[in-house]
# Entry
Amino acid sequence: MDLVFSDIHADVDALNLILDTVTSDEFVKKYGSFSRIINLGDLLERGLYPKQVITQLQTLEKNYPIYSVMGNHDEGFLTGKKVSASSLESIRAHESLTQEEISFFKPKKDGTFGNLEYIDKTNGLFCVHGGPLDPNKITPKNANDEAWLYQRNWQRLTEEDFEFFSYHGYHYTASSAFDEVKNHIQNHIIFAGHQHMETALSHHDGVVQDIYSSLKPKQEKIGDHILERKEIEIQSNMDYFIRLGLAGPAGYYGVGKPVPHFGVVQYNPKKVILFNVNP
# Structure
């Protein structure tokens, strides 16, 4: 089983709440134990505890594979680009990070960090922070200093029926996302975060459908917390786009629901379960 989350935003309390929940006896008995972690980015900024978040993940790395992609806020902090909405206290907490802690993001010789996608062809997963479009196909030749806003960690699913660029990134349609990923994986699940709101879409024979609105939330008590869960049974002949909600309420910026969200992927049978935790 995979544990998947996005947008921790330096909120160590939320990260620990998620980890305590998924490792509790009650949760493991009902859903199983996770064997790897997929982090969809934005571990940094807005929250006050980047050091503690990174230290926790470095500790987890000793026992579990962790597959991470870069979020736009991660990139913003690591490369000196200004993104948005971090308090002075948060900025100071991030400035105290050491080179050893920053090494979690896998610095490269060209000055960049980490990966913008994680592709698991065996299990049919294409994981990004924002969107899966190939930036080389959508970036205008005259983009110049704006070219970085077309990258996968800045892309976002459009709420319109057309694609466009803004200073929040490139806004893509679900059809474009499915068309791009089928070049890499047939019958796939696209996982994304970035926009802080849960979404679930299916794709079959060129038709995209919203399936999130048909999911029936169910509540259960695990330990001292109430979990809300939504289950998506994965059909082998269909594609899916699943966007996770905000994992770290410290990153809440008026969009989404400010409680910790995460997901798990089960493989026998194949199922994605979306959770949020009410502390």
In short: Residues 2-278 form a domain with the Purple Acid Phosphatase; chain A, domain 2 fold (CATH 3.60.21.10).
